[in-house]
């Protein structure tokens, strides 16, 4: 028998292609040595060429999954990804209060405000943006928007370090404890600079930009790696730094799969002993 590992819960959508969403979260949790648990919100039909459609899971089933695992197994940290509808967001937010997940409770919560796939396919109904802002952000320990999500949530188009800082302040005003404004989509920049802020400190995290188109699941993998570190007890700045190291290697070792965009790979973290 082994000691029980730390646990992490993801509330997100299934990617039939295995590279993003629930599947990205689970393989990252596994590679990071935490026990992963899932509350599935939607089932997407997709491959490397794009998302062909999705079906939401009934909202009571979504919240029942969260209650079932947190009541019995315990959740050391949680993250949200694709939440699909305003109703799911509102009920998940209420459930977080009940099971003590979120910035004002015992267990850290990472909110990755997934709005669209990298092909531009919608993963969130339009009216749900307001629910992300008003219900979820005030409960988040950390939010991790990319620049498209920043624009949708704040109206700010980030083009340089100054507008990235302005966006961080606008997002902190929505109530999360910390924000990580990811600079990966600022393509003119030869580095990949993310900005981490709690509204007082502004920390630039500079990383290598790899020349690959195979970055499917990159945002999910970063948020899941941060969540795993929070589950292990790290504070937010250390967990984000560890997550950033993790995603860099995962992007460096991404692979082609199918005729379109291949996934980032957390496999580097596992021993190759066969
Ligand atoms: O990478 C964002 C994302 C999250 N969740 C699901 C997805 C995607 C992107 O395609 O399919 C289910």
Automatic annotation (TrEMBL):
What are the transmembrane regions? none
| Metabolic or biological pathway, per its Swiss-Prot or TrEMBL entry | Cofactor biosynthesis; thiamine diphosphate biosynthesis; 4-amino-2-methyl-5-diphosphomethylpyrimidine from 5-amino-1-(5-phospho-D-ribosyl)imidazole: step 3/3
Q: Please provide, in alphabetical order, the Gene Ontology terms of the cellular component aspect for this entry.
A: cytosol
Q: Which reaction does it catalyse?
A: 4-amino-2-methyl-5-(phosphooxymethyl)pyrimidine + ATP = 4-amino-2-methyl-5-(diphosphooxymethyl)pyrimidine + ADP; 4-amino-5-hydroxymethyl-2-methylpyrimidine + ATP = 4-amino-2-methyl-5-(phosphooxymethyl)pyrimidine + ADP + H(+)
- Which UniProt keywords are given for this protein, alphabetically ordered? ATP-binding, Kinase, Nucleotide-binding, Thiamine biosynthesis, Transferase
> Record keywords: Ligase included?
no
Domain of life from the UniProt record: Bacteria
Q: Name one GO molecular function term.
A: hydroxymethylpyrimidine kinase activity
Gene3D superfamilies from the UniProt entry: 3.40.1190.20
Which SUPFAM superfamilies does the UniProt record give? Ribokinase-like
Keyword Transferase listed? The answer is yes
Give the Pyridoxamine kinase/Phosphomethylpyrimidine kinase domain ranges: 15-264
GO BP terms, alphabetized: thiamine biosynthetic process; thiamine diphosphate biosynthetic process
Functionally, this protein is described as follows: Catalyzes the phosphorylation of hydroxymethylpyrimidine phosphate (HMP-P) to HMP-PP, and of HMP to HMP-P.
- Put simply, this protein is called Hydroxymethylpyrimidine/phosphomethylpyrimidine kinase
Q: Which organism is it from?
A: Prauserella shujinwangii
């Amino acid at each position: 028998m082994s000691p029980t590992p730390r646990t992490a819960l993801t509330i997100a959508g299934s990617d039939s292609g295995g590279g993003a969403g629930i599947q990205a979260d689970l393989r990252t949790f596994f590679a990071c040595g935490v026990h992963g648990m899932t509350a599935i919100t939607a089932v997407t039909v997709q491959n490397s060429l794009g998302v062909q459609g999705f079906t939401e899971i009934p909202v009571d089933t979504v919240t029942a999954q969260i209650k079932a695992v947190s009541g019995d197994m315990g959740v050391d940290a949680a993250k949200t990804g694709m939440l699909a509808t305003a109703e799911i967001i509102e009920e998940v937010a209420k459930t977080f209060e009940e099971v003590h997940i979120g910035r004002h409770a015992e267990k850290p919560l990472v909110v990755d405000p997934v709005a669209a796939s990298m092909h531009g396919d919608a993963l969130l109904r339009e009216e749900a943006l307001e629910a992300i802002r008003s219900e979820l952000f005030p409960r988040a320990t950390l939010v991790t928007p990319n620049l498209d999500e920043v624009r949708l949530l704040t109206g700010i188009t980030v083009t340089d370090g100054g507008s990235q800082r302005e966006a961080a302040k606008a997002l902190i005003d929505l109530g999360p404890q910390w924000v990580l404004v990811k600079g990966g989509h600022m393509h003119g920049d030869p580095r990949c600079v993310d900005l981490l802020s709690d509204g007082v400190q502004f920390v630039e995290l500079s990383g290598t930009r790899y020349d690959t188109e195979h970055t499917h699941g990159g945002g999910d993998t970063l948020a899941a790696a941060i969540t795993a570190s929070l589950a292990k007890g790290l504070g937010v700045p250390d967990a984000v730094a560890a997550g950033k190291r993790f995603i860099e290697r995962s992007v460096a070792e991404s692979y082609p799969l199918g005729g379109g965009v291949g996934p980032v790979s957390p496999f580097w973290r596992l021993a190759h002993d066969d």
